[in-house]
Each structure stands twice: as structure tokens, then as C-alpha cells.
Hints:
This protein is of the alpha/beta class.
Amino acid sequence: MSLSTDRILTTHVGSLPRSLKLQEANAARKAGTLDEADFQSTLADEVKQVVAKQVETGIDIVNDGEYGHAMTQAVDYGAWWTYSFARTGGLELVKDGNPANEVHRSTPGNLKYTTFGDRRDWTKFRDFYTSEIDTGNDPDSAFPVATSEISYIGQDAVASDVRNLKAGIEAAGASAGFVAALSPGSAARVGNKHYASDKDFQFAWAEVLREEYKAITDAGLTLQIDDPSISEGWDQINPEPSVEDYLAFIKTSVDALNYALEGIPEDQVRFHLCWGSWHGPHTTDLEFKYLADTLPSINARGYTFEAANARHAHEWKVWENLTLPEGKYIVPGVVSHSTNVVEHPELVAQRIEQFASVVGKENVVASTDCGLGGRLHEDIAWAKLSALTEGARIASERLFS
């Protein structure tokens, strides 16, 4: 992907609100009441429309809205992850002995994820989370578990992602596009009853996901790796570990990802870091300064991260003491998915200028904190993207004049 030398480019993290028509089509397909050809026709048309709307809004680096990652309702915090279940062989839905319900307590040097509902912020604010947000920790629910060797079976699905986005780009006249895909570390959060170790399981996922990565990049598109496990996992280890133990713990995830990316051009890869997309209190997020050295070790050219939400907006100053490797660029979030308040374009411009002051204006692409689809009403999501592009225009006038 080529960066601009005369203005601040804009993009977003991936997920965009799905129309009611697409939600209903996904539900009908799941129920077996919609013909596959009719579904694909609807999906292609919806992607074309969402690409056109991004271009109309002023977004430079567009995507398919992650419309190939099925959602059957307006609010869905997990489609970025659950889409992979249907694209992977060797998984079975398990109810008895559901590993999602196993509560683990870690010890130094032996860290383990606990259940989602047992994470430290969710226990600290138990009343809020049990009354306001579904933890998804239903003991009677089925959960995907690897019961045999896993394999990639999503060839048709990723081909559809690529085909629909490229058609949308051509129709709308967009200049660049990206497709989001799961990281091995996050994919390995499903249950494992086949592989001998967590490391073996993550590298098995690396082998599987490499095929999806190559399908995206071989088509000339940018690959965005979604990997909240790098940062979000900190809150899901109980009791709180030392930073040193945690950084050692996530090194396997980084190594597995770099293994999956071998042979893929670095300039076609960007990596997304986040602390969790749900609307709720975050007080145990790992500070960005502890992850700053991990990011450049990932074989990507661009790094996207949350920088607008109330827990992380101050951390732009961390970059004052960092050296961005030559040829790399950052994609900070300058509007947030975590609030319904639409940012003023002047605030967006100021945030962009803060990052430009510490890494150079040519190395900044303005973005959102995380995906907007499934988290915000569509009117709010598009208003935020408009504020993003207007803020980038304001910042560009001041930075490049």
C-alpha cells in the first residue's frame, strides 16, 4: 500500500454495520431457507453498496465491512472471531465439558486464560456486566473444540470476500482495500482436545490461516490481522501476572503469526491491536507502553491500535520515546467505538496532529479504534466516519500547507 505525501489518509478497522437485509439473509442461510446462489447475490450487492458509501464518506483505504463475517443481529461483539469456525475443519461443537466454562488460576511462569466472564474487569464490575452485557458464558451452550487435526476449508468464503471487495472497489473508484483475518493466537482460543500443547495448537492455526492470508494478498489486497489476544488477554489471566511473564506468554502468539506470514509481502500487511470491543468499564487494560516493543517485532508494515477511547487517548505520548522503524507506519484510532458521542472534527484533527508530531506526518493513517459494526447504531457509525474524514482534512491543511 502506498502512503500519501500530501495529506493524511483515512481508513477504519474493518467491521461496519450490517443492513437488516443482510442480517436476515445470514439468518435464512443459516436456517437453510435461502438458496446459496441467492445469498451470494445479496452479499455481493451489499458489499458493493458499503464500499460505495465508504468512498462517498471520504475513506481512502476501504474494505468489505467484514460482511463475509456473518452477523444475524445488529449487536454482535464476536463476528471477527466466530467467522473462522465455518472455515476450519477438525472443529466440533461441544456442550459437555465445554472448555469455555473452565476457570483457571495462573501461577508465575504458567499463565492460562480463564473464562470470559471471570476476567478481572468483569469480576470487578460484576453487577454491571451481568445486567448490561451478555458474557456468552452459558454453561449449556455449545463451543467449538478441535477434536482432530485442523484444516482450512474456507476457500470459497475467502474467494467471495476478495471477489466482492474488488468488484466494489472497481465500481466505486476506490484506490486501496483491505480484508481482515484472524490471528493464530486469537483463533486458538477455541477448545483443544487434539494438540499436545498450546504452542502446537497455535502453530497449527498458523498453517491453517496462512491459506486465508495468501488468498487475500495474492489478490493484491492488504491483509489486516485481527489479534486482540496480544493485549486483551492480559485481563483474562487471573490473578494478574507480572508484565514480564505476560510478555513471555504472548511471544508464542507473535511467533506463530510471523510463521503464518512467512513469504507474504510485509507491505501488504497491517496488524490490529485492541483491548476488547464491548461497551463496558475497562480498568485493567495493559498499558500500551508495555506492548510498544512487541508491535515492531510483528512482520507487518502498518500497526493499528486504539488511541481515542478514554482509557488510552493519553498514550500518544508513548511514541515520543519510540523510534518507528523505517518503512513502517501507524494507524491510530482517532474516533472511538466505545461511545455514542460523535467526536468533533477539530478533536479528530488534534489527535492526528499529536501523532504526526512524534512519528512524522507521512507515517500516519487516521482510523477508528476498533470495528464499528455490531457495536454502534449505523447512523452513529457513519457520523463518526464523517468526523474522521473531516478531521483528517483539517489536519492535512495544517500539516501539509
